């Protein structure tokens, strides 16, 4: 029994060391402990723990009985060699069982902390992704608003360009009308000059005839 308890303490110490330090075996050990806590694993572990507690209480009860049996009237404890051997055996057994239970509790707490840490890391990664997605969505919405504003400005500029082009077309037509009017006035002026020249000639000719 004592050899089994020493072996259990050794392997529990190995498990604790693996859990404390980041090694390739830690992830595999955590997965193994996860599987042990599923299905019938907790029942088996609780049964083993109850058996160890029963052995611990039995050892403590044996130590108390030995001490009661050997108490004399003077209040001192006098143990014979057989009782001393039994006492040492019970003390060693109870100490080892207590150590096994204590290390088992440490392993359970370490595994729980590792699992919580892993869950929190996953949640943190998910939160970061959600924040990044939210930031991208906000940036997308902002860009949509800017695109709508730019399209509105572009439409306004296009309307301004259309109005300007219409004004240019109207001015061109007005200029062409003024040009035609100017050419007509020039032509009328030219015709009036010709008529004036003809009239001058006639007047000069008639005056010269009168003088003769």
Characterization of the model:
The protein is mostly helical and 212 residues long. The protein has a domain at 1-63 and 86-150. It has helices at 2-20, 24-36, 41-69, 81-211. α1 runs parallel beside α4 (81-211) and α3 (41-69) packs antiparallel against α4 (81-211). The longest helix is centred in the C-terminal third of the chain and has 131 residues, at 81-211. The protein is rod-shaped and about 190 Å long. InterPro entries: BAP29/BAP31 (IPR008417). This is Endoplasmic reticulum transmembrane protein. It is a multi-pass membrane protein. It is found in: Endoplasmic reticulum membrane.
Write down the overall geometry: rod-shaped
Query: Mind summarizing the main beta sheet?
Result: none
Global Rg:
57 Å
The amount of beta strand, in percent, is under 5%
**Helix percentage range:** over 70%
Count of alpha and pi helical runs: 4
Quote the average pLDDT. 83
Give me the strand/helix succession: HHHH
Structural class: mainly alpha
Residue windows where pLDDT falls under 50 for at least 5 positions: none
| Tally of strands | 0
The N- to C-terminal Cα distance equals: 175 Å
What labels describe this entry?
212 residues; mainly alpha; 91% helix; protein transport; ER-Golgi transport; endoplasmic reticulum; transmembrane helix
């Amino acid at each position: 029994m004592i050899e089994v308890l020493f072996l259990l303490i050794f392997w529990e110490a190995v498990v604790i060391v693996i859990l404390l330090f980041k090694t390739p075996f830690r992830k595999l050990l955590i997965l193994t402990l996860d599987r042990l806590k599923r299905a019938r694993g907790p029942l088996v572990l609780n049964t083993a723990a109850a058996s160890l507690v029963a052995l611990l209480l039995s050892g403590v009860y044996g130590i108390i009985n030995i001490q009661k049996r050997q108490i004399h009237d003077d209040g001192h404890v006098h143990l014979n060699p057989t009782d001393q051997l039994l006492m040492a055996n019970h003390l060693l057994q109870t100490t080892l069982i207590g150590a096994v239970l204590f290390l088992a509790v440490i392993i359970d707490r370490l595994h729980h902390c590792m699992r919580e840490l892993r869950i929190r890391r996953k949640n943190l990664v998910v939160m970061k992704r959600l924040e990044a997605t939210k930031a991208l969505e906000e940036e997308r919405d902002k860009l949509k608003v800017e695109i709508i504003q730019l399209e509105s400005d572009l439409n306004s500029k296009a309307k301004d360009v259309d109005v300007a082009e219409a004004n240019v077309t109207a001015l061109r037509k007005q200029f062409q009308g003024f040009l035609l009017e100017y050419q007509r006035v020039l032509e009328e002026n030219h015709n009036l000059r010709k008529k004036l020249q003809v009239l001058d000639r006639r007047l000069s000719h008639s005056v010269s005839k009168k003088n003769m």
